[in-house]
Specification:
Number of strands of chain A: 0
Distance between the termini of chain B: 43 Å
Strand content of chain B: under 5%
Distance between the termini of chain A: 22 Å
GO molecular function (chain B): ER retention sequence binding
Number of helices of chain B: 9
InterPro entries (chain B): ER_ret_rcpt
Helix content of chain A: under 10%
Structural class of chain B: mainly alpha
Largest sheet of chain B: 2 strands, antiparallel
Radius of gyration of chain A: 7 Å
Number of domains of chain B: 1
Helix content of chain B: over 70%
Oligomer: heterodimer
Membrane topology (chain B): Multi-pass membrane protein
Strand content of chain A: under 5%
Largest interface: A-B, 9 and 24 residues
Organism (chain B): Trichoplax adhaerens
Strand order of the largest sheet of chain B: 1-2
Order of helices and strands of chain B: HHHHHHEHHHE
Pfam families (chain B): ER_lumen_recept
Number of strands of chain B: 2
């Protein structure tokens, strides 16, 4: 499942 | 946050600090590619614009600010304060090409056609190849100081650890960002030759010299 709500990584 | 990402971030942080210490202590940036550092600064700048729009955590914000500030400090040291020691004539990789290709790819392959999303995607693609001028410089001179090789080892390990983090997140959280994952695999792959030399030479106390 694709999930890209926010970029929480650095 | 999982252990792979935490160690990855710490490795990234260590790389940046090692580089700053190397330049500051030796009062010299010899052996360091100013072009790679310019690319990393562009990467951080494009990616961390979301500092103003998207709060994740105190940790996230602090790290972003540190990465931005340290990359600009590195650029300042290389191109201004210690510019006499910068090996301009060995730093000849055509890095404009990397930027052009990353821009085109980011416009074509992204999650959403919006300014912030395209900048984020561009930063991911550019980061994957930003080390090439540095690796090219080492190939050209045939050697690297051991502190420079420690820097590269920490910097290369960081994205490799992120791959483990993505595998973990896929299984545990159902989270998968294939743009980051594929770029991260490319990025880590570029370090393969270097990792081999680092483990077989530098870890045994020898200098990093390339086989003739």
């Amino acid at each position: 499942k694709y999930c890209n709500k926010k970029h929480d990584e650095l | 946050m999982n252990v792979f990402r935490l160690i990855g971030d710490m490795s990234h942080l260590a790389a940046i600090i090692i580089l700053l210490i190397k330049i500051w202590r030796s009062r010299s940036c010899s052996g360091i590619s100013g072009k790679s550092q310019l690319l990393f600064t562009a990467v951080f700048t494009c990616r961390y614009l979301d500092l103003f729009t998207n709060f994740v955590s105190i940790y996230n914000t602090t790290m972003k600010i540190f990465f931005l500030a340290s990359s600009y400090a590195t650029i300042y040291l290389i191109f201004m304060k210690f510019k006499a020691t910068y090996n301009r004539n060995h730093d000849t990789f055509r890095f404009e090409l990397l930027i052009v290709v990353s821009v085109i790819l980011a416009l074509l392959i992204n999650h959403e056609f919006s300014a912030t999303e395209i900048l984020w995607t561009f930063s991911i693609y550019l980061e994957a190849v930003a080390i090439l001028p540095q690796l090219f410089m080492i190939t050209k001179t045939g050697e690297a100081e051991s502190i420079t090789s420690h820097y590269l080892f920490a910097l290369g390990s960081y994205r490799g650890l992120y791959i483990l983090n993505w595998i973990y997140r896929y299984y545990v959280e159902g989270h998968l960002d294939w743009i980051a994952v594929l770029s991260g695999i490319v990025q880590t792959g570029l370090y393969c030759d270097f990792f081999y030399l680092y483990i077989t030479r530098v870890m045994k106390g020898k200098n990093l010299t390339l086989p003739a």
